[in-house]
Input
Amino acid sequence: MQIIRDKDHKTDVLKTVPASEGFRMPGEYEEHKGCVLIWPVRPGTFTNCGKEAKITFTVIARAIAESEEVYLLCDKDHYNEVTNIFAEDLNIKIINIETNDSWARDTGPTCVIDKSGEVRGISWKFNAWGGEYDGLYTDYELDDKAAVRICEELKLRCYELKDFVLEGGSIHSDGEGTLLVTAPCLLSKGRNPGLSKEEIEAVLKDYLGVKKIIWLPRGIAGDETNEHVDNICAFVRPGEVVLAWTEDPSDIQYGPSNECMEFLKKEKDAKGRTFKIHKLPIPKKPVCITKEELEALSFEPGEDIREEGERLAASYVNFYISNNGVIFPQFGDENDKIAVEIISKVFPDRKIYPVNARSIIVGGGNIHCITQQIPGRSDKY
Amino acid sequence: MQIIRDKDHKTDVLKTVPASEGFRMPGEYEEHKGCVLIWPVRPGTFTNCGKEAKITFTVIARAIAESEEVYLLCDKDHYNEVTNIFAEDLNIKIINIETNDSWARDTGPTCVIDKSGEVRGISWKFNAWGGEYDGLYTDYELDDKAAVRICEELKLRCYELKDFVLEGGSIHSDGEGTLLVTAPCLLSKGRNPGLSKEEIEAVLKDYLGVKKIIWLPRGIAGDETNEHVDNICAFVRPGEVVLAWTEDPSDIQYGPSNECMEFLKKEKDAKGRTFKIHKLPIPKKPVCITKEELEALSFEPGEDIREEGERLAASYVNFYISNNGVIFPQFGDENDKIAVEIISKVFPDRKIYPVNARSIIVGGGNIHCITQQIPGRSDKY
Output
C-alpha cells in the first residue's frame, strides 16, 4: 500500500484527437497496469453510508489486487478507515481524491494506448447520467473532475473533451476497432441532444480509435443510466460476447434481450466477423430493494429517490475482467451458480471471483460500474 | 453457501479418553476439512459493534474458503446480513449458533483424528480466560456450549471434559506427539488451580494423544489470555517453529522472547529432535488502542474494560494455516513486509494472504484466535 496524498500538481491536458495520434481503446481483457476504485460513502447510494458496501469493495479490491494494482480513491474523512483495512504489502495504493459518488467506470478516465505502450486518459463531460434532463444528482462537480485528477496521480497525459457527455459504462471496446453501445443511452436527451447519431459516431471514432460502432437497441430493464451497455452485453474476446438473457416471456427483460439477440445475429464487427453470442441468464427472481434497505439510505435534495420494491438492474454481465480473473456478481439467486459455470467456460484461463453484489446493486450499479481499468504493462502479473 | 439452521439435534457426547481410542491432535499444517469462524458483533470487543471487524472477517473467510470449507457461525439477528455478503457458490456454510463472542479458537472444538480418518471434537470447559479470578466477561454460557453445538452441526462425535478449563489458543500440536504451551497460561489461577503441572500434563496427553509437553516460560506482553502460546510461538512443521522476537532491549517483549529462545534451544520434541527456530519480529511500533477506537467500544457490566493507549498483544505469530495458504496479520507497521517475507520463506509452498488485523487486535485477539480448523479430508483442496 503506497499512499499518494492530495497535491496541486497538474496533468498535461490535451485538446488533440487520440486516433489521429495513433491511440486506440483496448479490450478489457487486454493487459492492465491497474484498476481504479472509489471508496463507497454516499448516503443516498449505499446503505448505512456504505457500511455494507465497504465490505464488498474490500473483497473486490483484494481480488483485483491479486493480478494488478488497485488505485483506491477516498476522501480525507475516510483516509484512516481505509488505511486500517488494507495491509501494507498489498498492491493497493490509496489516493486522496474527493468525488461525489463511487462509480469509477463512469467518472474515471477512459484509457487509450498506442503502439509504443503509452497510455493516455480521456476525460469526457460527466453530468450524473443526464444532467438537468434526467440526471441522478445535481452536484457532480467533483465527479466531473475525477478523470483528470486520476490521470494526474497516475502520471498519464489526459485528453479533455468537456463538450461531449459520455460515461465509461456506456461503451465496450473489442480492442480491434469495434465499439458496443446502446442507442437509448447514447441518444438520450440528457447527454448530447444537439448531436446526431452520425456526429456521435464521429467523436467515438476520433477518440477511441474504433472503426465500427454497434448500436444495440436496448439495455437492462430498470437501468437508471438510460441502459448502459455494460449491463446487457460485454466482449469476452474479439468476435465474442455475453448477452443478458431470460427465457421467461413474462419478464420485462424478455423483449429487450431478444431484440438485442436478433440485432447482434445480423451484425458484423470492424473486421467483418459475425458474433459468437453466449447467453448469460439474468437472476431468476427480480432483485428488488427492501424496506429495510430503503430506510438505510438518506437522499439529499435533488437526488433521485428509490422506492420500496423497485426492481434493480441486476445483471451478471456487469463483471470486471482483471489480469488473472473475472470479478463476478452474485445476488443470492438460483441462477448464481449457473452464471458462474457459464462464465468459467467463457474464460477458461481466468480465475472466477464470485462476489455478492447486493450492497452495490442497491446503489444502482454493479461490479463493472465501480471499476475502471488502466491498461498497460503490469509488474504484478 | 449452504445454510444450516438451528435445530435441536444432539451430538454423541463421549466421556471416554481420546488417546486410548487411538486419537491424536494433528498439526495445523495437516489437511483440513474446514475452519470455524464466528461473525463479530460483541460491542465490548469490536469497534462499532463489529462494523470494521466484519470487513476483516469477510476477507479472512474468503481467503480460507479458497482451499477449505468455512463454517461461519452467526446469531439470528445477523443472519440476513451475513447471507447478503457471501455468494452462494463460495465454500462458506452459514450456521446459526448463538455465542457470547467470536474467538472460535478458544470456544470451538479442539479436534483429534484417528488412523481411519475419523475426526472427533473435544469440548473443554470455557470460562472466558479465567472465570471469577481474572476472566474477561462474566456471562460465557453460550461460548462454553459452542464446541458441542459445532460438533452437532458438523456431525462429529464430541468428547466433553467440563471439569478442565482450556482454550485452543493455549496449545499448539506438531501432530507427532509434541505440544507447545506456556506455563503462565496453563498454570494460571483462573483455570485449573486444583491441578498440579503433572496432572495437567496427564490430561493433555490423554486427550490430545501427545507424549511431550513443552512449557514455554512466557508469552506476549499485554496478552490478556494469560499469555496464550499462539501469540508467541507456533509450529510450522514438525521440529520447526516461529518465535515472536525483538532486538530492542527496551521493549517489554525483549525479556520474554529471549527467555523462550533460551528455553527452546535446550529442548527436544517428542521424537528427540532439537528445534529449528525462526525469529519473527514483533511490530516495530507498539500497537496501542486509540481514543477513537475506545469510544467505539461499549462494555457491559463485569466485562474487562480497555484504556486509551493500552498496548495490544500484536504478534505476527498469530496466523492461520489453511490448506493452501497462510492468513497472515498486518498492523500497518514497518515490520509488516519483513514478516511477510520471513513467513513466505518458511512456507514456500503456501500462498500468503496478508490481512490488516487492526479491527481484530482491538478486541484482544488476532487471526489465529478467530479460527479453529476442523481436520479431515478436503473436497476443495
